[in-house]
Amino acid sequence: xxxxxxxxxxxxxxxxxxxxxxxxxxxxxxxxxxxxxxxxxxxxxxxxxxxxxxxxxxxxxxxxxxxxxxxxxxxxxxxxxxxxxxxxxxxxxxxxxxxxxxxxxxxxxxxxxxxxxxxxxxxxxxxxxxxxxxxxxxxxxxxxxxxxxxxxxxxxxxxxxxxxxxxxxxxxxxxxxxxxxxxxxxxxxxxxxxxxxxxxxxxxxxxxxxxxxxxxxxxxxxxxxxxxxxxxxxxxxxxxxxxxxxxxxxxxxxxxxxxxxxxxxxxxxxxxxxxxxxxxxxxxxxxxxxxxxxxxxxxxxxxxxxxxxx
Length: 310
Prior knowledge:
Elements: E1 5-12, E2 22-29, E3 34-38, H1 45-52, E4 60-65, E5 68-69, H2 74-79, E6 81-84, H3 96-106, H4 121-133, H5 149-161, E7 167-171, H6 179-196, E8 199-203, H7 207-210, E9 215-220, E10 223-228, H8 230-237, E11 241-245, H9 249-258, E12 263-265, E13 269-272, H10 278-284, E14 291-295, H11 299-307
Parallel strand pairs: 3-8, 3-9, 6-7, 7-8
Antiparallel strand pairs: 1-2, 1-4, 4-5, 9-10, 11-13, 11-14, 12-13
Helix pairs in contact: 3-5, 5-6, 8-11
């Protein structure tokens, strides 16, 4: 199947800027994929997602969403995407359902109706179905001002899905939520993705949220610096190593050198695997050890190896 998102040689330079905010990046996202865009502040994430959602024009390159050109067919792109921004965009003077209804009317899905009961059956069924999936069915007709932060986020997801978009863009969707609300929100997003086959495009500062992605794209200073599965990104950027120590440190040091093992003292002995297995290295060491730890790189380690660069 062709990619649902296809970005080719995308460039964006703002007026009076001395460099490109986005500098010739290319990537593709398959239908139903969970794709995560990571990068430090100023890396080009916001610019990229703004172009993909048609709120910003590129300087060069092409972007196609669901087969439509983001510049030439911006309206068609918007009909095929849902967007959840970092900052809430709900009208607190309305009920939850009214927020969704006016959104659906603005998208041209239905003609204006003054009440929920006068809306078409298809809309009513969609509201009940999504409210059930997101576990806010009992609150869907209550005023927004009575909602917690987590419930508002769920409603924004419901609103963004009402027109059955092929792609859901999530720009820092859990910012400001407590850990329990963040976990719950991702449980609901996982259910929505499973039940609807929706493609998810995420930007986030919570790296644990990106661990479950199918594909990760890390950008820095406008360029892609790593791209692939979480395992591939971690393997490319951070090495797996052993931390060991011994009562006779001189003997251990001499043995590591004699066996040709690459290590550093930090002050513990940090032994790099260099393609060997942990078991192979441990078996090769005869010096009695007082400490043995295996370090498996996390996505955070990989990310910080980029962000920490000057």
